[in-house]
Amino acid sequence: MGKLKRLAGDTIIYGVSTILGRLLNWLLMPFYIRIMDKAEVGGVFNIYSYIAVMLVILTLGFETGYFRFAKKENRDVLLKSLGSLVVFCSAVFCVLVFIFKENIAYYLGNEYLKADYFLIGALIVALDAITSIPFANLRISNRTVKFALLKFLSVVLNITFVTFFLVICPYLIDNGYTFFEWFYNPNNKLYYVFVANFLSSLLIALFLVPSIFISKASFNWQLIQPVIRYSFPIMVVGLFGMLIQNIDKILMPHLLSKNAMEALAIYGANYKIGILMAIFIQSYRLAFEPFFFKEGKEAASNELYAQVLKYFVIFGAIIYVGVLTFIDVVNVLLLPEYYEGNVIIPFILMGQLFFGIYYSLSLWYKLTDRTNYGAVISGIGAFLTILGNVILVPRFGYLGAAISSFLCFLLMTVISYGLGQKYYPVDYPVGRIFVHIILAVVAVFISQMYSSEQLLFHFAFKGTIFVSYFAFLYIIERKDIIKILS
């Protein structure tokens, strides 16, 4: 249980910074929907989806490759070599986007998204890609506090710049300070959302990037060749995974004939309600990857991996029940015209939970160096997500996108589990995991059966269901809970 506690401790450290950072970023969503019109809010979700996809490509899967090949004696060389290669690729990418920005805007943009949006998006991607290897170095060096602080600082800087551009500048211009009109156009708020992100990413990059070049180590092409061969399938896996999570927001403006950007705004805002599940999964991923590479293929680790997955599902199920049981409270952050999108939240939350399960199961192809299998599984998932969106979104709107995402992650989990049991068998408690998922769904279903205009009775009922759910959890898992606490 000591190793399990260590993983939990790292998850908490990553989680605290991630929770604070993501929650602050989350507060930008209710801010945006109150200060911009729906079409502009849809533009935020659309451009950031492109940024997320391109970031996976530019990082080249090197973060995982760095964990796999970094040893104390070659870590400096690997940091400089991989970091320099990412810097070069990022520079080439920015130049290409600058040259072809008008063509990119013609094929990917619309009346709200202009060429300059894609250019500044490219700069954001490049800066974040360049800092990925230094951040990975902090993680594998167990400098979790510094990693967490820098990630949190990045969010704080972004929010500061967003507030400056969208609140302070318009206020000053309205009060006669015309100097600010020199660099600020109050009719183009969407553009300054990305300018704020660029400036925050630039400041963090200025702090981290020197670590790539100040080392006395020299670039070593032969050292990184096996890293590239190992990382490329990981990059493909990541690309497919990011497409699965973002292709809905990329395709929706092209699949809906009317009010597409407005529909995307409603979809994206309600998608953000799943932030607690996303925070939990991201914190778990940040802690889990370095953890299982250190544990390796020891026979004793198999039982540990099984326990890790079970507790991951338990905590994910708690988040699922909590968010959906008290959705009325969460909706305070939305505007009434966005409430209709609540229908997607159960599918998004459960899809994210299965995504986390899939990620945990993926250790079999990473530890056995069969990363090509991960690429195939993710490719199948990406294909099905795209197909599902193309078929369901024109018919059911954004609900079709949510259903496609959920079914994709479910299928990927099933495929990964089947192959994993063949190449790296782990005795996962599948029955117990299934029980926890069903229990969570049933608890949510019961919580939706009663609603009262009397807030006291309404929340008393919701609270009773939530407490009862915890009681069932304790009954099912009391033996392991007592063992952990002892």
Number of domains as seen in the coordinates: 2
Number of helices: 20
| SSE series | HHHHHHHHHHHHHHHHHHHH
**What is the overall silhouette?**
globular
The rounded distance between the terminal residues' Cα atoms is 10 Å
Please, what is the average pLDDT?
84
- Quantity of strands, as a count: 0
Fraction of helical residues: over 70%
Q: Which structural class best describes the helix and strand composition?
A: mainly alpha
Spans with pLDDT under 50 lasting ≥5 residues?
none
- Rg, alpha carbons: 23 Å
Strand residue percentage:
under 5%
Sheet bearing the most strands, described?
Answer: none
Looking at this protein, list some descriptive labels:
mainly alpha, single chain, 82% helix, 20 helices, 2 domains, 486 residues, globular
Question: Can you describe what's shown?
Answer:
The protein has 486 residues and is mainly α. It folds into two domains: 1-19 and 227-486, no CATH class; 36-219, no CATH class. The protein is built from 20 helices and no strands. Helix 10 packs across helix 11 (260-271) and helix 10 runs parallel beside helix 17. The radius of gyration is 23 Å and the shape is globular. It starts with a helix and ends with a helix. The model has no long low-confidence stretch (mean pLDDT 84).
